[in-house]
Design brief:
It is globular, with a radius of gyration of 26 Å. It is built from 17 helices and 13 strands. Strands 1, 2, 3, 6, 7, 8, 9, 10, 11, 12 and 13 form an eleven-stranded mixed beta sheet that branches. By secondary structure, the chain is an alpha/beta fold. The protein folds into two domains: 194 residues, Periplasmic binding protein-like II (D-Maltodextrin-Binding Protein, domain 2), CATH 3.40.190.10; 208 residues, 3-Layer(aba) Sandwich (D-Maltodextrin-Binding Protein, domain 2). The longest helix is centred in the N-terminal third of the chain and has 28 residues.
Length: 442
């Protein structure tokens, strides 16, 4: 009798357990399944505590950890990496398809244009007061349109010129070689002496300085060179303003420099990667780099310098990299994407990977300061940073036409004045189209 009671009691407990498990499964099954696509171009990261250097791997780890602990939805996440020349295909070309990006990690100079498509979601509701205070106000300003925040800054990279010290020494230019960890600036007179000496002394098939105009990759650096004779580049309304005495003088300097042999032969048909290969092969004395690419180079033979300026202080450009969320018509997916960014930005380990450049988070920068490459030099050089987009929409459209006129200048089919007129006309037309079609998320 007692055994029967025990069996009956055991059966009741088992039934309760099975019922409980069934209820849990039903509850789990009741969660909505959501799939998020996270997209990014090839981006380098760094964390002294791990061996991960590819942001693709970082995001895969972050997505896996987030999905494992997330309870609001049954979320799966796919990380997709695209080539720099494939951006249109992978972002705007995927709008209104199953392949549309939900989250983008990229540089602001492309991301800012997407805000004006009306598909990028404001993120102010996930920015805490603590986060707001932790990130410099200048970065927040760059992340906003009409007072709303559409991008979350992660880190910034400062682009400068670099030079091969060995080639400088071989050409008798040792006095222009600076100290390790310092960023130099040369006066216009020093620039001319350095370039003319390199052109005269370098071996055949070795060139003083990079130049390229095959496509839009690297056009930002050409834009920076166009400030070399005192041009502000933009007018007070943020429009191209190169058809001026200073702008034409800079275009003339580029054309003259090509004729003097300062640039590689056939550079109008070269792209930036071609100049990169020349520099690596020691066939180019002056190239470009930033705090992400410079550490991988031979530091003993590589010096750092600003782009030329009329006042001799030099210029650099700062590229901010961060996150953006797209609204693809599903509020639940937008919410899950926001929750992922909350999770990522509150995770110290993930934030530490921003040490590849200057972290946007001051707390992160302080935490990993000993691992940030040339932090003092880049921070001090921030005073020489120029704005290369003026927060204009349709920057992709600007880039589509800008390099074509530099190509014609270098090939001799346009004079500097004709190039200045064409650059102002076509680039400003692209900007006006951007403003005309601009639509912010509602």
């Amino acid at each position: 009798m007692k055994n029967r009671k025990r069996i009956a009691a055991g059966g009741i407990v088992l039934a309760i357990l099975l019922g409980s498990l069934t209820g849990c499964k039903a509850q789990e099954a009741g969660k909505r399944q959501i799939s998020l696509k996270v997209k990014l171009p090839p981006l380098t990261v760094a964390n002294a505590d791990t061996g991960i250097t590819d942001s693709y791997e970082l995001l895969n780890n972050a997505c896996e950890e987030f999905a494992a602990q997330y309870t609001d939805y049954d979320v799966t996440m796919e990380v997709v990496k695209f080539g720099y020349t494939e951006e249109d295909e992978y972002i705007t070309g995927c709008f209104d398809t199953d392949d549309a990006a939900d989250i983008l990690l990229e540089g602001y100079f492309n991301m800012s244009g997407y805000i004006h498509t009306g598909r990028v979601v404001p993120l102010d509701d996930i920015i805490t007061e603590e986060m707001r205070a932790d990130i410099d106000s200048m970065l927040w300003k760059m992340s906003q349109v009409d007072g709303r925040t559409y991008m979350l800054p992660y880190y910034s990279l400062q682009n400068t010129l670099i030079y091969n010290r060995d080639l400088f020494r071989e050409c008798g230019l040792s006095e222009y070689i600076g100290e390790d960890g310092k960023i130099q600036s040369w006066t216009p007179e020093e620039w001319e002496h350095i370039l003319s000496t390199l052109a005269a002394e370098l071996p055949e098939m070795t060139y003083p300085m990079m130049m390229y105009a095959k496509n839009d990759q690297g056009d930002t650096h050409i834009m920076t060179l166009l400030r070399s004779k005192g041009s502000s580049f933009f007018d007070e309304n943020g429009r191209f303003n190169l058809n001026t005495e200073e702008g034409i003088a800079a275009l003339q300097w580029i054309a003259d420099s090509y004729q003097k042999g300062y640039f590689p032969a056939g550079c109008e048909n070269m792209e930036i990667i071609d100049c990169n290969d020349l520099f690596i092969n020691k066939q180019l004395a002056i190239y470009i780099a930033n705090s992400a690419t410079l550490p991988g180079m031979d530091r003993s033979s590589t010096g750092v310098a600003n782009f030329p300026s009329l006042d001799g202080k030099g210029y650099n450009t700062s590229f901010v990299t961060g996150f953006q969320i797209f609204d693809n018509g599903d509020p639940d997916k937008v919410q899950a994407a926001k929750d992922f960014l909350r999770y990522f930005m509150s995770n110290e380990e993930f934030m530490n990977y921003a040490q590849v450049g200057i972290p946007a988070s001051n707390a992160t920068a302080e935490r990993v300061s000993e691992h940030i490459f040339m932090q003092e030099a880049y921070t001090a050089n921030a005073a020489n940073t120029v704005d290369f987009t003026a927060n204009n929409p349709n920057w992709r459209g600007v880039r589509d036409v800008f390099y074509t006129h530099i190509h014609e200048l270098l090939s001799g089919t346009k004079t500097p004045q004709e190039a200045a007129q064409a650059l102002d006309a076509d680039c400003n037309a692209a900007i006006e189209t951007g403003w005309k079609n601009s639509k912010l998320h509602e």
